[in-house]
Design a protein that fits this description.
The protein is of the alpha+beta class. The chain is built from eleven helices and eight strands. The strands form three sheets. The chain has a three-stranded antiparallel sheet. The protein has a three-stranded antiparallel sheet with strand order 4-5-8, with helices on one face. The chain has a two-stranded antiparallel sheet with strand order 6-7. β4 and β5 form a beta hairpin. This is Elongation factor Ts.
């Protein structure tokens, strides 16, 4: 059996970022073979991932990037189990590496990012798994990308909620400023669609049925149920679709009116909202 020195352990630790004891155990098991030891540490990370697969990830970090011309945005969320891990340097560095990779390869999906190779030859997925082994927690990656005439972004002060919002018919308006206001609205009010046309038909049907049942329970005449339910559905659209919501900074206007006041005809083409633990 090869003699494992402190220098060997330190070398593997420098290579992998794993703890001293984990590095020593891996080198002993690998009989001093550094590549084999790295594989052992990676397998340890996969075991942690498998073991903690059902655990909740309610902490983490959201990062965004908008292209220089303002037409494309990318958002990455790296979630973990505890707040203390979310503050660790190598966790935050991994989140940034994931975002940088998304931008570099112009990723369409999360899977594209995880399969991409980092500069050390390992895939991003392998880096995620390695960090799970080091910190002993489940990590989850969420990714969103958006292309529009102009894309604005916002990350909430807790770094756990982020939005990309696409604007069209911007004209001479300050897209970044108005887009930020709209993005903050999306974080706070959680709209389910841009407007009522974007609401899934099954959701609308469910709201109609619930409205009818509520009216029936209240003793309303059967002939009035459809009209009452339609009224409740319109209220649902007002509360839950972005353009129809009251602007949180000035409830005298809707988001549609806010946008139109900044540039005639300006509206939202799409948005992406990501929240860790919510």
């Amino acid at each position: 059996m090869a003699a494992i020195t402190a220098a060997d352990v330190n070398k593997l630790r420098t290579m992998t970022g794993a703890g001293m004891m984990d590095c020593k155990k891996a080198l002993v098991e690998a009989d001093g073979d550094f590549e084999a030891a790295r594989d052992i540490l990676r397998k340890h990370g996969q075991k942690i991932a498998d073991k903690r697969a059902e655990n909740e990830t309610s902490e983490g970090l959201v990062l965004v990037s908008v292209s220089e011309d303002g037409t494309q945005g990318k958002l990455v969320a790296l979630a973990c189990e505890t707040e203390s891990v979310a503050k660790v340097a190598n966790f935050r560095e991994l989140a940034q590496q994931i975002l940088d990779t998304a931008v570099r390869i112009d990723a369409g999906t999360k899977e594209d990012i995880l399969a991409a190779k980092a500069s050390d030859g390992l895939s991003i997925q392998e880096h995620v798994t390695d960090l799970m082994g080091k910190i002993g927690e489940k990590l989850e990656v969420t990714y969103a990308t958006l292309t529009a005439e102009k894309v604005a972004s916002y990350v909430h002060s807790d770094s756990k909620k982020g939005v990309l919002v696409g604007l069209k018919n911007v004209g001479s308006a300050d897209a970044a400023a108005v887009g930020r206001d709209v993005a903050m609205q999306i974080v706070a009010m959680k709209p389910i669609a841009v407007d009522k046309d974007g609401v899934d038909a099954t959701i609308a049907e469910r709201e109609i049925e619930v409205g009818k049942e509520q009216a029936r329970t209240e003793g309303k005449p059967e002939a009035m149920l459809e009209k009452i339910a339609q009224g409740k559905l319109n209220k649902f659209y007002k509360d839950n679709t972005l353009l129809n919501q009251e602007f949180v900074k000035d409830n005298s206007m809707t988001i549609a009116q806010l946008l139109d006041s900044k540039s005639k005809g300006m509206t939202v083409s799409d948005f992406k909202r990501v929240a860790i633990g919510a």
